Each structure stands twice: as C-alpha cells, then as structure tokens.
Amino acid sequence: MALLEVNNLDVRFALRQGDVKALRDVCFSLDRGERLGIVGESGAGKSVAAFSLLNLIAKPGYIAGGSITFDGQELTSMSDRALRKVRGHRISMIFQDPMMTLNPVLTIGEQMIECLKAHRRISSREARAISLRKLEQVQIPSPEKRLNHYPHELSGGMRQRIIIAIALLLDPDIIIADEPTTALDVTIQAEIMALLLELCEKHNVALVLITHDLGVVSQVTQRMLVMYAGRVIEEGPTREIINDPQHPYTQGLMNALPQMATPGARLNQIRGSMPSLNKLPTGCAFHPRCDFATRPEGTPRAACTDEVPGFVSSGNCRVACHMVAEMQHAERIPVEEKPS
C-alpha cells in the first residue's frame, strides 16, 4: 500500500457568485522514499494541491470531495487535534518564502525548540541538542551561533537551510516543498535542491516538490504530475515525460524552455493564458490554446470542445487528452514543428 493516496480530490472556494473549482478529480499516490514533482503554470492548482494534503486550505476554500489517505488514515475527516499530530511531525512542509515562515521576533533556537516540544515530551536541553544536530545536517556553518540569531540576521540561502532543518526536526515520512528556491539566486537554488535531495535519500523521506522549473524536476524527482486549470493532465515517470511529452500542454511547456529556441530567435510560447477557474472552457480546458484541437481544415474537433477528456495510457504515463490515441496510431507532429 502506498504511503499517501489521493483519490478524486475536489477543492472549491465559496464565493458570492458561486463555488469556484480549484481542484477537480485529482488522483495520485506516493510511496515511502519516492520523489514526486508537480508542475504547471501559475494558477494550475499546484499549491492548492499541496495545502490540501494537510487540510491547510484557508476559508472560503474547502475540500468538497475525494479522499486523502496517509499511512492508512483518512486525513480529510480527521479532527484538528488529530491533524496536529500529523502536521509538522509525520508530514512537514517547506514554503516559498522563509521570511514568511520564520517568526521574526524569536531566535532560530527558540523556534526549533518550540516545534520539538509541541510534538514530543522532552526537555529544552534535549530539544536544543536535536536542533543543533539538524543544523549540522543541513550544513549550516557555526550552528551553535545560528541558534541565537534572528531570521533577519541570516542570508536567504541560510534561512532556507534552516527551514529544511525545521522540516526534518521530527523525522517526517513526507516533506512537501512548495517552490522552495523561488526567492534565491541560481547558484544557491542548486545548492539547496542538492541538499534536499541528499537528505531525502539518506533518511528515506518521500518528497512532493511543487515547482514551475522543469529542469529541477528532471534532476530531483522520479515521477511527475502536470497540472492545468485545477486538473492533472499527464502523469508518469519523470524521464519518460521529459523525453517524450504526450499532452499538447506538456509539449508546450517543454518547447518554452530557452534551450529549445533557435539562438537569436524569439522564445517559443504557448499562445493565450490560463483560463479563470470560474470561467473554464467547455470540454478540455486547454482546447482554446491547443493546436491539435483544430482540424487541418480549420474546424474545431467536437470532442475537444464538448467533452472533458478521460485518462488514456501511453507507455508508462496517463494522459488526459482526446488526441493521444490518434497520435499513437499516426505519425505525431514533433513538438518543435507544431503549426503556429
């Protein structure tokens, strides 16, 4: 049995004009020690999916349906008191901005000790010793001194290392990392991701990595989900999706990478923009931006405009696209040669 199983997850936000569906029928699983990447444009639902795992959706958001099973326990129906034993303990989260996560008026040591004592019955001395060991694990220089520092006294990379140390404090089974390197420069990003990968492998910790960076996903994760407008549209082994994307949206993401463009030419891009969640197109949500949703003679494909696509298998991947079966039995147009 998988460590984490998400089935038919439906998350909505109750607004005056009606409920907005932020997530629709999201399904995936995560084994112990496995690394899963979730990618997509801003507004695709990546962070909402991550926050849903710990039922951290703020009102007016709520989980409207589906199940989230962690180690045999159903999290969606769990009481707040029971959830507190899971959050930060068995499932930890690393947020985008460490300055928004760390308390500016408490020292690093006070925050780490407080976290430990909230979940374990130990003395402050024992908690401090554990905190010191975790800072050493994330390669913080002079860790004894850092315990007495306030967040503003540390660099961005140092703060993110401390956030990782706090996430590892209670030896979790899963770490959810939501854009963990967004606020850092490229060199520090690489160091932080290498450190996170090393720690997860060493301690057999499962990782859910939310990012828009396909390069990071290809280097860190074993499996990936591609999300669009609140729905998973492609899932499978990372290498297989990166090397041979099946969904037109995934192909567009790959083509948008700078290295896919001819030097000196304009960068490739997916035309249009992500639809508003309260005004989703009928049928496949991607069809207004998709080159394959229109027939060669210029007429729209009825299936793409009228029917929400189900999943079909393509190799080891699952793809939600009406065109996959047709492309499997015909010579598929290479991504870089798609008609404009």
UniProtKB/TrEMBL annotation:
Substrates-to-products reaction catalysed: a dipeptide(out) + ATP + H2O = a dipeptide(in) + ADP + phosphate + H(+)
GO CC field: plasma membrane
A Pfam family that the UniProt record links to this protein: oligo_HPY
UniProt xrefs under PANTHER family: DIPEPTIDE TRANSPORT ATP-BINDING PROTEIN DPPD (PTHR43297:SF2), OLIGOPEPTIDE TRANSPORT ATP-BINDING PROTEIN APPD (PTHR43297)
Family statement drawn from the similarity comment of this UniProt entry: Belongs to the ABC transporter superfamily.
Keyword field: ATP-binding, Cell membrane, Membrane, Nucleotide-binding, Transport
A molecular function GO annotation: ATP hydrolysis activity
Residue span, ABC transporter domain: 6-254
UniProt keyword annotation of Membrane present: yes
EC number: 7.4.2.9
Main subcellular location of this protein, as a coarse class: membrane
Location(s), subcellular: Cell inner membrane
Membrane topology: Peripheral membrane protein
Protein name: ABC-type dipeptide transporter
CDD domains noted in UniProt: ABC_NikE_OppD_transporters
SMART domains the UniProt entry points to: AAA
Coiled coil: none
Any Gene Ontology biological process: transmembrane transport
